[in-house]
Amino acid sequence: MGLPQRLILTLLSIYLYSATVVNTQQEFKIQSVELIIEPRNDVTAGTNVTLRCHATVSTSTGKGLIREYTILKNDKIVYTKTIGSSEDFVYQLHNARVFSTGLYQCKLDIQGDTKLSKAQRLNVQGLSQPVLHLNTNVVNEGEEVRATCIAPGEIGSFIFFFFDNDEQISRVEGLSNQAKTTFRLSGADIHKIHCSYKIRTAEDTFPSTKSNNVTVSVKELSITPELKIFPDSTIYEGDHLNISCSAKNVHSSSEGYKLFLSQGTKLLRTGNSTINHNMVAVPKASEALTFDCRVVVRNVEKYSEKKISVVELFSVPSLTMSPTEVFQGQIMTLTCNSDRFASQRINREDLEYTLYPSKNLPSSGKPGVFNVKALQNDFNYTCSAEAKGIKKDSKTLMIRPKVHVSALKISIEDKVILKKSFTILCQSNGSLPINYTLFKDNVQVGTKVIRERNRQAVFMDVINEPGERQYRCEAKNSLHSNKTGSSQHLSVNVIVPLSQMTLAVIPSSLAISEGEELNFICSVNGTGPVTFKWYRTGSVVPLQTNTTTETYSNLEIKPVSKNDSDEYYCEASNGANKVRSENVNVQVFMASWKKRLIVVACLLLLLLLVLLLVASMLNIKSKRVKVDRAEVSVWSKRKPETESDDEISEVSNEPNVEYTEVVHARSTDPARVPLRKGTDTVYSELQNSPNGAADPPDYGSVEYAELNREQFEISQYDPQVHSYQDLPEPVD
């Protein structure tokens, strides 16, 4: 390579690299992508269709971008192409076909940024007519024919159909627009062959029209089957049959053939030459025997069919029982009999009957008659009839021996109340149906028939007079049964409803004193047992409950107290009804000894009050005397201060101090210097001095008096016990 060429390549590489760098650096935006179908969306087959993809892209430099366009049909990629220009991308569908029908879209991809157009539907209508070709127009029966069906110009997924006189004989699927098949024609006749096809798309299947008809002439084969049956006249059950199947008009040059001999759907024999089969004739109910001989050559079948009637030698025996109902252990008669036989071949005496499973021979002089004792449980019997080596069995006869009624029981469901209906039940063990009869005092009341298991016979009755009644049930399995079961007698006592209830109180006076004994006696008319209950009004809990066969009862309260005062009543019930007495008011008064005790206590209390009043009056008089004396000694008048000291000294040379404790209601005299207001205790100091001055606190004996309104007490004051300092200070 020369220098100029290398230089040119280098410059070109630089240019392309620069363009790539520019491409990668410039910014862009795919604004829209639109798919346009030209000339239109609906076209006929063979039209040239253009799919135009128009994209609007904005760029920062205005230079071209590398664009990748993809055409999709029904969400599957059809075509992809990369271009470097901004022109519309065009995809051509030359000679569009029905297979081109579908939803199309256009996708644009620029440097990983993609945008998809809206879907547009293309409809292509019309399929080309198929063309049929056969390899021959004349064939022998059974020869093979080769056929080719072509769908000119079509593409897609095909299904081809081949028809013989409008009957489908072959089907071929594929992706090619032509299909080949082979088939054989049977029956000497003119056959018209044609074909058609269908194209499958993702959404639907489109059928074509019929192709041209091709006529084929079929020559019949000369070979025919031959079927022979011996004897060919009247055939009786048990006769031996000889059946042969062969082919006629067989040429040595003809292809090999095969024979098939059948009876109905059962294949008897096969072979390549004449077939012989021997059998005993056995009739089929209301049907003839059908035999078929077939010969097959080159897939061509030809057959011959014959039907024969077989006369029954004797009919299938039937097994019957007499009587139709039998009880356990009872002797019954089983009869096995074939009512029809072929008198041309056998006599009735030729028939031999056997009973199974016991294999008993007839126990009487008549053929097929057996005397058997019924078992304790269900059992199945069959019998057979045999003549000329042919044996036939009867249908199974199931014998269910009946069970005589037993364990008959009678019961009453409700309480028997006078003049009210009640239910009587009868039940027993035994085979159904069971007939029940109810008797009252040996007089029939009614009958019932029970046909279901575990059901009881239900009778209703009413008793209108008090007293005892006798009931019993009789039962038997059927009206014609000679064995009847009877229940035990059921004695029924009629309950008479309660009435005329009375409540008595003993003692009869309703004024009862404490400690006495109180009795309530409740009585009714009716029948027992009766349940009595006693109540206090306002309480739902009975004081006493007892049940007795008598029509009366009592409640005893002892000893009674004041708390037993109340209203009482009685209730009684006997299963028929409930009655209630009227309320009885009971007042319990205080006991007489308590009254006497209270009178004595009151007198003693009155005497005590009188004594206290006398003592109080004497005490008040004594206190008044003491108060008068105290007022003289405490509140003595002092001499005027103008008196001389000599006069004072004449009275006493020793200091004279007196303490008086006085209780005032209220003091207003300032000279007395009250220490406390109200009813308080006050201490006053009275001191006499010869010189008019206070002497040292050397006090001798001091007297004080305590006054409290009516009572007071004077006592000696001991200065050693009460010091001067302990005295309360005067208050202003």
Automatic annotation (TrEMBL):
GO biological process terms held by the UniProt record: cell surface receptor signaling pathway; cell-cell adhesion via plasma-membrane adhesion molecules; immune response
SUPFAM superfamilies to which the protein is assigned, alphabetical: Immunoglobulin
Domain Ig-like: 497-587
UniProt-listed Pfam families: Ig_2, Ig_3
Cited InterPro entries: Ig-like_dom, Ig-like_dom_sf, Ig-like_fold, Ig_Fc_receptor, Ig_sub, Ig_sub2
Gene Ontology cellular-component terms listed: external side of plasma membrane
Transmembrane segments: 597-620
Keywords annotated in UniProt: Disulfide bond, Membrane, Signal, Transmembrane, Transmembrane helix
UniProt protein name: Platelet endothelial cell adhesion molecule isoform X2
